[in-house]
Amino acid sequence: MAPSSIWTLALLAAAATALPTAETQATCADIKNALPGRLWLPGEAAYTKENRDYYNIGLAELGPACITLPTSAEDVSKIVKILNVRPGVRFAIKSGGHDPNPGQSSVKDGVLVALRHINGTEYDAQKNVAYVKPGGHWSSVIGPLAKKNVTVVSGRLGVVGIGGYLMQGGNSFLSAQHGLAADSILEWELVAANGSIITVNAKRYPDLARALRGGGDQFGICTKFTLQAYPIGPVWSGTKAYAAKDREAVFEALADFVENNHKDPKAAIIFTSGLGSASLMQFYDGPTPPKGAFGKFENLKATMDVGKTQSYADVIGATDGLFNFFSSRTSFRSITLPHLPHDHGYYSRVDALWSNITAKHLKGRYLVGSTLAFQPFPNSMGKATETKGGNAMGLKGSDHTRFVIEIAGIYSRKADDDVVQEMSREYTQVLTEQLQGVKASAKAKGITVGEYNPMFGNDAGPDQDVMGSYRDVATFRKLQKQLDPEGLFAKRAGGFKYPE
Ligand SMILES: Cc1cc2nc3c(=O)[nH]c(=O)nc-3n(C[C@H](O)[C@H](O)[C@H](O)COP(=O)(O)OP(=O)(O)OC[C@H]3O[C@@H](n4cnc5c(N)ncnc54)[C@H](O)[C@@H]3O)c2cc1C
Fold first, then answer.
1. Is any ligand 1 atom within 6 A of the Cβ of residue 191?
2. 134 CB under 6 A from ligand 1?
3. What whole-number distance in Å separates Cα of residue 68 and Cα of residue 28?
4. Disulfide-capable partner of 136 in 85, 119, 155, 158 (CB 3.0 to 4.6 Å)?
């Protein structure tokens, strides 16, 4: 059968389900004509492969009308120009597909623009920059760069996608030293709302560069990032686990670490509570952490304690194999809270609240797991952000130290989607309300609690107003409207948006 006949049959088959609108189907057909061999419909192998490749396996159920797999910025430009023709058509941009929120890098009955084939990393030793494309995963970037003894500020797990991570900010083991990953973006090759391919850097477009460092997909589709490279040698990484009876001492150690992280920003941790345990992932940018780098954690008895000197690429890639077998529904939600130097018990209370809320919601639901990941945002991060020109989150060196909690749900049944969202939402609501009381009682004692606690987009949940929490939201929204007057990205694509 001729390819065109197969295409006609496939279109008819897609039309038979009658869910995507005629406008959407016409858009799919136009993209197919403009980019032969780069658009796929339900039932075709390339569609099935791409649609199944989400970290949250539940997203495959959404089902786009068609999936286009461009291979260059020019292809993306053609797609954007075609999308402009019919304003009713929804679409989503997918790089790694690690965002677990429905409708961010996934779209029901719309056009999925999947950037898998726009991938690759090159290092320019003279300029000390890496050119990184959005498809692929961090292991594919960090491995090749390690051979040149350099790295970039990257995801902490090699499996994490690149495009969404960088467009939404990006927290890294190197962030206390160098700021968010997005702070180290020197240039963006961006397909703008009118389909033109533009080069954005802080010299040419200072406001846009700042807005892009954490502003998500509202200004365009990035097809290449120019990233500042940093020297890297052997690093140290370890994991510890703690017994429940040591809970209070463990949370005191966490508070102590967050408070003092700025003194040695080469040290980084992720503290995870949940699934019946408390564990600590430690990282040090150097072959051996100096005594005291992990503060009070060093004096606590651990039930498991492993650590070794290794390459940064090995740290990032350590779990790559594990994730090949990971197959689960997942959810994210996040809250940013101020560190309270006068109240180290805050961490323990914040954790206990989650235990209470999950116990209430999950009675009899044994197949739902959940974790809280505590991530320090020391003010050294804001200092690094400021020296690099500022970011959308508005981090500043003069700010207080904060911590971000990523609330993750891991479960298998569609029937549990709602309860996972409900309990996470209740948790962030109660914490937000309680924070008012925390501030009031601190004020009564003459203590000021840091007011500005913007959300961290990479860990946020589907209904969270990430962009509305940014201090310069009004400026960014105005800029967005100038660059995207028809609302192509603001109204028709998935992702976090500035509130009206
Ligand atoms: C196992 C795991 C570990 C993680 N570890 C970290 C971590 O260490 N640090 C951290 O900060 N986050 C981490 N995250 C969160 C992660 O950064 C986000 O899920 C991020 O969105 C992943 O990038 P992606 O390319 O897969 O995004 P996608 O899911 O592909 O896209 C997410 C959003 O970004 C937009 N987008 C994607 N690509 C582009 C592009 N090229 N141009 C414009 N917009 C685009 C999409 O429109 C969408 O709204 C982790 C997530 C998981 C599941």
1. no
2. yes
3. 8
4. 119
User: Which ligand 1 atom minimizes the distance to the CA of 220?
Assistant: 43
Site to substitute for ligand 1 among 57, 94, 218, 326, most atoms within 8 A of C-beta: 94
pLDDT, one tens digit per residue, over 213-265 is 999 999 999 999 999 999 999 999 999 999 999 999 999 999 999 999 999 99
Q: 39-86, pLDDT tens digit by residue? A: 999 999 999 999 999 999 999 999 999 999 999 999 999 999 999 999
Which of ligand 1's atoms lies nearest the C-alpha of 170?
11
Closest CA to 284 of 235, 241, 239: 235
Q: What is the residue extent of each domain of the chain? A: 3-114, 121-231, 235-464
Ligand 1 pocket, residue 403 CB under 6 Å = no
Determine whether the shortest distance from the Cβ of 458 to ligand 1 is under 6 A. Answer: yes
CA distances from 422 to 226, 286, 328, 360, 371 (A): 39, 42, 18, 11, 15
Please state which CATH class domain 121-231 belongs to: alpha beta
Topology, domain 235-464 = Vanillyl-alcohol Oxidase; Chain A, domain 3 (3.40.462)
Instruction: Kindly report each contact of residues 486-491 with a partner whose C-beta sits within 8 Å and lies 24 or more positions away, as own/partner.
Output: 486/84, 486/87, 486/193, 488/80, 488/83, 488/84, 488/193, 489/193, 489/217, 489/218, 489/219, 489/220, 490/218
What is the distance between the alpha carbons of residues 146 and 312, in angstroms, rounded to a whole number?
7
**CATH domain 3-114 topology:** 3.30.43
